What does this fold into?
Amino acid sequence: MQLTTAHLIANPCDDEEDNMAMLCCHSNQGDMFLMTRYPDEDELEITLDGEPSTLDGVKVTLSPTRLLIEIAAADADALNGDDHLEIHHSTAPADLAEVEETLQNILKGTGTYVSQLT
It folds into this structure.
């Protein structure tokens, strides 16, 4: 599955939401993607078009223009039947550090983060 978005919206620690880490975007086609995790939970939550799914073992790769989310085949219903979601983005380079910090917070202890930023 693929989405294209103007930019990724990231918050590594939302103190108004019990320190939840959150990454989201709205695609050019109007789809919404949201990935969140509270620091005291062992799993993360992915919401695609309003349907939340709780997952662990997620692998996320971030590059300057692409975010790749890979999940277990058994969890494919979270991504409308796909085991990966590729998001093409135009996030400003200055904002990628916050995106990276957010992904590290979300995946710490429950998934794998791969950086292709350098």
